[in-house]
């Protein structure tokens, strides 16, 4: 049997390889790292997480992301199984020890007899064979040019910013305190998954002034600042209004200062644990394009971080993605070159979980093809089905932008149209319908 070839061993490519091998089909996984790296990646491991360590909400009743988690687990996904084994306390979210996570994914794929990992860069799109392109937002220049040549159009681009990471032992815990918002979580560890740094109004106003005045990274000629709204740099949010951050990542609600319980903070900066040892914390929602020197000065204005030591400072880079509604069919194949499937963030989904989910689908579809079958996508009432429907035709091509999974992509329930019922009724109905329909999709294979 001819193998399926996958280009890129990120979350999407790794998940695709796992699904193909589990179907009994050989797979060759091509990865250019570490021989050729990117500015964001630090290792040659599979499924390296570069922006944060969070898979976001794990609530599969009230949250569309949590429902996507459920579907990936139901489908025997490698990414979710590995995340579950390396999870860290994070309130209602699923956060992982990123180094241990990627090492475990790599080990699992290396131990799978039907998976062959081949180092080296792929610079051209093959004319035949069964291929999945899962190179992500940091697709190499040579392959990006080959994709542009094959599609006859430029890929779109936006800028994705990386949040900084702080050494935990340099956080002043006489000022900061541990608490998840609204004490969310079943265990004490979950209820204390975040470190909170409070600001009064004067401190907040001074912080905003410094943020607006700080030196920022300049864009290269020909680049445009088309940010994805779910991942805006904090200085861009501040430019939209001085109160924007206080109603976004710095909102003070659901928190009580353990040191001054009677004093209400005007704003709060949250940090989330980034590794199993609890030695590293990332500043939640603090993606930035400030220059490194400015970052240390501005972030040390945050109460509790005056003497902070940074394991990593924030950064910004260009992310490329296809105008998928015009280019891909519902089997995730390039319409002009149906031997090529695309998966992951390069298709225009946003987020670790969404990228891995598209890898799962592409892998199952490619394996079915290798076995002489055709596999349709899940019903669009499911999280995966809603997402793949959006990128392969549900979205408006002229305004296509990266998208997280959300209930707005799900078809409404007839009995709940017109907003007659609130989220407490609608969201569980959406997720129960999704579970039923996704289970039926799996059973039919």
Report strand %.
Answer: 15-25%
Largest β sheet strand count, sense and barrel closure: 6 strands, mixed
CATH class category of the largest domain = Alpha Beta
Q: In CATH terms, what is the architecture of the largest domain?
A: 3-Layer(bba) Sandwich
Low-confidence stretches: none
The Rg value, from CA coordinates, equals 22 Å
Q: Structural class per helix/strand content?
A: alpha+beta
User: What name does the CATH topology of the largest domain carry?
Assistant: FAD/NAD(P)-binding domain
Number of DSSP helices?
13
Helix content: 25-40%
Strands in their spatial order, largest beta sheet: 6-2-1-7-17-16
How far is the N terminus from the C terminus? 20 Å
> CATH superfamily assignment of the largest domain?
FAD/NAD(P)-binding domain
What is the strand tally? 17
Order of H and E elements: EHEEHHEEHEEHEEEHEHHEEHEEHEEHHH
Instruction: Summarize model confidence as the mean pLDDT.
Output: 91
What global shape is seen? globular
- Count of individual domains: 2
How would you sum up this structure in a few lines?
This protein is of the alpha+beta class and 445 residues long.
Keywords for this entry:
445 residues, alpha+beta, FAD/NAD(P)-binding domain, Elongation Factor Tu (Ef-tu), domain 3, 6-stranded antiparallel beta sheet, globular, FAD/NAD-bd_sf, cytoplasm, flavoprotein
How does this model look, in words?
- A hairpin with a 2-residue loop joins strand 16 and strand 17.
- By secondary structure, the protein is α+β, with helices and mostly antiparallel strands.
- The strands form four sheets. The chain has a six-stranded mixed sheet, covered by helices on one side.
- It is built from 13 helices and 17 strands.
- The chain is 32% helix and 17% strand.
- The protein folds into two domains: 274 residues, 3-Layer(bba) Sandwich (FAD/NAD(P)-binding domain); 158 residues, Elongation Factor Tu (Ef-tu), domain 3 (Beta Barrel), CATH 2.40.30.
- Helix 1 packs parallel to helix 11, helix 2 runs parallel beside helix 13 and helix 3 packs across helix 4.
């Amino acid at each position: 049997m001819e193998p399926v070839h996958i280009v890129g061993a990120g979350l999407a490519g790794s998940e695709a390889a796992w699904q193909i091998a589990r179907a009994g089909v050989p797979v060759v996984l091509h990865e250019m790292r570490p021989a050729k790296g990117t500015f964001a990646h630090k290792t040659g491991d599979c499924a390296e997480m570069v922006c944060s360590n969070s898979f976001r909400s794990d609530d599969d009743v009230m949250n569309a992301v949590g429902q996507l988690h459920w579907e990936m687990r139901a489908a025997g996904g490698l990414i979710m199984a590995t995340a579950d084994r390396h999870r860290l306390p994070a309130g209602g979210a699923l956060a992982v020890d990123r180094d241990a996570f990627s090492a475990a994914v790599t080990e699992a794929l290396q131990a799978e007899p039907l998976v062959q990992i081949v180092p080296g860069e792929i610079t051209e799109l093959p004319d035949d064979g069964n291929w999945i392109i899962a190179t992500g937002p940091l697709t190499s220049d040579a392959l990006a040019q080959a994709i542009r040549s094959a599609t006859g159009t430029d890929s779109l681009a936006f800028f994705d910013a990386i949040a900084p990471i702080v050494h935990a032992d340099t956080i002043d815990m006489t000022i900061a305190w541990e608490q998840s918002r609204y004490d969310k979580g079943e265990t004490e560890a979950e209820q204390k998954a975040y470190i909170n740094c409070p600001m009064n109004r004067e401190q907040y106003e001074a912080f905003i002034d410094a943020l607006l005045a700080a030196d920022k990274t300049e864009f290269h000629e020909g680049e445009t600042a088309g940010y994805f709204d779910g991942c805006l740099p904090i200085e861009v949010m501040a430019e939209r209004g001085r109160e924007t951050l206080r109603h976004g990542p710095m909102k003070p609600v659901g928190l009580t200062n353990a040191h001054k319980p009677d004093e209400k903070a005007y704003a709060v900066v949250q940090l989330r644990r980034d590794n199993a040892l609890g030695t590293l914390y990332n500043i939640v929602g603090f993606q930035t394009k400030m220059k490194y020197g400015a970052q240390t000065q501005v972030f040390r204005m945050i109460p509790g971080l005056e003497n902070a030591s940074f394991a990593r400072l924030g950064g910004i880079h260009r992310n490329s993605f296809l105008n998928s509604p015009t280019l891909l069919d519902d089997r995730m194949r390039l319409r002009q070159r149906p031997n090529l499937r695309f998966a992951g963030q390069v298709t225009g989904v946003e987020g670790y979980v969404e990228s891995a989910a598209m890898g799962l689908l592409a892998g199952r579809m490619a394996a079915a093809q290798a076995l002489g079958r055709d596999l349709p996508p899940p019903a669009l009432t499911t999280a995966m089905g809603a997402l793949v429907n959006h990128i392969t035709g549900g979205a408006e091509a002229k305004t296509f932008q990266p998208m997280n999974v959300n209930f707005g992509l799900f078809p409404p329930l007839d009995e709940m149209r017109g907003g007659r019922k609130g989220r407490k009724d609608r969201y569980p109905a959406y997720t129960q319908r999704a579970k039923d329909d996704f289970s039926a999709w799996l059973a039919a294979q």
